[in-house]
DNA sequence: CAAAAGTGGTAATCGACCTTGTCGGTTTCG
DNA sequence: CGAAACCGACAAGGTCGATTACCACTTTTG
């Protein structure tokens, strides 16, 4: 009875372990997705183009991702996750400041992350919309998290007497829409005004939404 | 020398003129597009499916539209045009009312049009995003028109002393984003609250944006 | 009533893309 | 140094959708 090799064998090649080279290829595919999804658009980007740009064989593509859609999802998670993290930590550090300063700092962190690269902005605001039910669900999940963040800011403002208590759920969605549309317009439209103007405008919007009425 | 028939020949078939039957087929294709784009989504809808649903042959499809994208564009123009018209005429009729009433009436007209049918909302807010450069340009054109409408409201408010004069271009984009995101969330999410709540929220947003600062 | 003119549906062609199997080259181990 | 294992590139199979060519049918006209 021959011994059955249950564990997958793995050797080093070119001085790198199998995991290292897998991670390498995955990262190159992510970069290719960033470039192609972010400039040519998701529908115009085939798996072959992605692999050519990343210098990865199509065979290896399927070793890393079940399909093209999953690469888009991974990119979107990375972008949105970083933006969310930046916004959250900015907010945490500004807890003792005024409402306007808290909003300005949080918005600035979010904006400078998502629009630090025009391709990020395009993927986050355009290419990820209306792709498939799975992607839509993913997007809704992130929007819901953002909505919770805004609601938390509102609750804190009520605690500190900067806003009157009421249901902020609709307001939060409206504010998210305002942020996204304005950043999208600004980023994809050539960034004709300084980023501080956009921050100032969104701060005005946020403060107005929380304090009026 | 034979006479050259410069005018296109056209006979009646089934008691209808060529134009009538063309218009008929075109309208049936528009309805099929509304149904399929609005429920299955644009990427999942092939020309064959459209033709089957509309009882139109693929040959006649190309007689009416250069391609699938142009049907989407025609639908989007119809939806957005109607919404825009409803909003504009509502605004015109409310010129002597207070700022809040003008905003509420205009927003209500816009919302009740775009979300009178969930498929309209989905096409207007989701399926039309990120399809191709041509569609994106089309979308930007409509957004720019909407922005002008909001700016006009702001200018009128300044005239009447309801708002302080400043540059409202960024504010207009932010407001449009707020409207779209909230209506989208509300319409696609099951409409769990009455439409008047959405109108009230967006009125609050509009008034706040124009009067604060 | 027969032939011509025009119309609309069917089906074939064409190409693109996704997916997987195979092969040659390379590296490590005995 | 030889053999075996392993990796990655190439390419073929298969599916699906877009586009167009052809033909059968309908209506009119002489």
TrEMBL record, chains A, B:
GO terms for molecular function: DNA-binding transcription factor activity; transcription cis-regulatory region binding. Residues 46-65 bind DNA. Coiled coil: none annotated. Keywords: DNA-binding. Residues 23-83 form the HTH tetR-type domain. It holds the Pfam family TetR_C_24. InterPro entries: Homeodomain-like_sf, HTH-type_TetR-like_transc_reg, HTH_TetR, KstR2_TetR_C, Tet_transcr_reg_TetR-rel_C_sf. This is HTH tetR-type domain-containing protein. It comes from Kutzneria albida DSM 43870.
């Amino acid at each position: 009875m021959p011994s059955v090799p249950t564990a997958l064998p793995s050797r080093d090649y070119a001085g790198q372990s199998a995991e290292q080279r897998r991670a390498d290829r995955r990262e190159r595919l992510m970069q290719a997705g960033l470039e192609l999804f972010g400039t040519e658009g998701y529908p115009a980007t085939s798996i072959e183009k992605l692999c050519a740009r990343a210098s990865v064989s199509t065979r290896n593509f399927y070793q890393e991702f079940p399909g093209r859609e999953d690469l888009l999802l991974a990119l979107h998670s990375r972008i949105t996750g970083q933006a969310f993290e930046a916004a959250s930590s900015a907010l945490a550090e500004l807890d003792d400041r005024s409402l306007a300063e808290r909003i300005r700092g949080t918005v600035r962190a979010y904006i400078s992350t998502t629009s630090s690269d025009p391709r990020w902005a395009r993927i986050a605001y355009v290419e990820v919309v209306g792709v498939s039910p799975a992607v839509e669900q993913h997007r809704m999940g992130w929007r819901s998290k953002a909505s919770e963040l805004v609601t938390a800011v509102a609750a804190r403002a009520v605690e500190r007497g900067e806003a009157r208590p009421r249901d902020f759920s609709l307001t939060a969605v409206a504010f998210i829409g305002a942020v996204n549309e304005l950043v999208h317009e600004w980023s994809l439209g050539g960034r004709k005004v300084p980023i501080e103007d956009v921050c100032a405008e969104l701060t005005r919007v946020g403060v107005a939404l929380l304090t009026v009425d």
